[in-house]
């Protein structure tokens, strides 16, 4: 059997050539990094959980008409996705101050923002993904004004969906990051949600206790990351409620 072609390897995922033109296979690794890969670990079961969680969120987006790259989950760690041309920007939506916004603006973590705030960071590891303004984006040609308008609209729709889904299971969506890709249908280009949506790229706090259920558990050494992600999956019904740990072999069916 021919070895499949690796298209790209990132910090948490690998992309392989898909079975048909215009598709990729996205493989979720157990690797976790923080602070621009200064901190690294392998966390048993993280890839399995993120594959399932990203599937869950992307399918939910599809159900309410928000276009995204997800086609089909293939197995525990892999999903079939639509090939896109990634726009080199991280699109962040914040509902409450936390992380770099708290540091930058001196707001205590958890402060409610007057409205959801969309930020853009340039995807460039060497530069540490710096915050950029819409002026920079247009002037340097990373995206057009139309793309920007579409990205903001998409990001806010994702925020509405994700906030509702999470609140229903007692979790506050503090902020999240998405990546957006370009696809062509004949001569028309469209923007769709790509990459992943998982606790790696969101801040999720328990509504009652404020307990962190996202990658900050790893960034800030707050305990078991797998336990936190398993809890999110369990509440969403992505894993059967009698399962207590994602690495158990009975988990994925
Ligand atoms: P920040 O507060 O560190 O800027 O992060 C904002 C959101 O973006 C948070 O939910 C975590 C997510 N994020 C990523 O997904 N990847 C990254 O590289 C960074 C820095 C943040
Ligand atoms: N993307 C960051 C890194 O590579 C991780 C993060 O803080 O989310 O290390």
UniProtKB/TrEMBL annotation:
The protein's name in its UniProt record: Phosphoribosylaminoimidazole-succinocarboxamide synthase
Top-level taxon of the source organism: Bacteria
This protein's UniProt keywords: ATP-binding, Ligase, Nucleotide-binding, Purine biosynthesis
Record bears the keyword Transcription regulation: no
Species per Swiss-Prot/TrEMBL record: Palleronia pelagia
Molecular function as annotated in GO: ATP binding; phosphoribosylaminoimidazolesuccinocarboxamide synthase activity
Catalytic activity: 5-amino-1-(5-phospho-D-ribosyl)imidazole-4-carboxylate + L-aspartate + ATP = (2S)-2-[5-amino-1-(5-phospho-beta-D-ribosyl)imidazole-4-carboxamido]succinate + ADP + phosphate + 2 H(+)
Cited PROSITE patterns: SAICAR_SYNTHETASE_1, SAICAR_SYNTHETASE_2
One annotated Gene Ontology cellular component of this protein: cytosol
Lineage, opening ranks: Bacteria, Pseudomonadati, Pseudomonadota, Alphaproteobacteria, Rhodobacterales
CDD domains the record matches: SAICAR_synt_PurC
Domain SAICAR synthetase/ADE2 N-terminal: 6-235
Family from the record: Belongs to the SAICAR synthetase family.
InterPro entries xref list: SAICAR_synt/ADE2_N (IPR028923), SAICAR_synt_PurC (IPR033934), SAICAR_synth (IPR001636), SAICAR_synthetase (IPR050089), SAICAR_synthetase_CS (IPR018236)
UniProt pathway annotation: Purine metabolism; IMP biosynthesis via de novo pathway; 5-amino-1-(5-phospho-D-ribosyl)imidazole-4-carboxamide from 5-amino-1-(5-phospho-D-ribosyl)imidazole-4-carboxylate: step 1/2
UniProt-listed Enzyme Commission number(s): 6.3.2.6
Example GO BP: cobalamin biosynthetic process
């Amino acid at each position: 059997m021919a070895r499949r072609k690796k298209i790209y390897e990132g910090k948490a995922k690998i992309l392989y050539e898909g079975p048909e033109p215009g598709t990729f296979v996205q493989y979720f690794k157990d690797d976790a990094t923080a602070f621009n890969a200064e901190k690294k670990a392998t966390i048993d079961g993280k890839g399995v959980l993120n594959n399932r969680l990203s599937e869950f969120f992307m399918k939910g987006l599809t159900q309410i008409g928000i276009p995204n790259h997800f086609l089909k989950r293939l197995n525990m760690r892999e999903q079939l996705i639509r090939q896109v041309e990634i726009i080199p920007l991280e699109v962040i939506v914040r509902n409450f101050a936390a992380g770099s916004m708290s540091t930058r603006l001196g707001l205590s973590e958890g402060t409610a923002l007057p409205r959801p705030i969309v930020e853009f960071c340039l995807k460039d590891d060497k530069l540490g993904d710096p915050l950029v303004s819409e002026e920079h984006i247009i002037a340097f040609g990373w995206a057009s004004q139309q793309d920007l308008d579409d990205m903001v609209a998409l990001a806010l729709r994702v925020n509405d969906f994700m906030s509702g889904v999470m609140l229903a299971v007692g979790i506050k969506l503090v902020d999240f990051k998405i990546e957006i890709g370009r696809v062509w249908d004949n001569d028309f280009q469209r923007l769709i949600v790509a990459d992943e949506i998982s606790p790696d790229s969101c801040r999720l706090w328990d509504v009652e206790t404020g307990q962190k259920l996202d990658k900050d558990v790893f960034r800030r050494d707050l305990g078991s990351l797998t336990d936190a992600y398993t809890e999110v999956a369990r509440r969403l019904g992505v894993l059967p409620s009698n399962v207590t740990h994602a690495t158990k072999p009975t988990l994925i069916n």
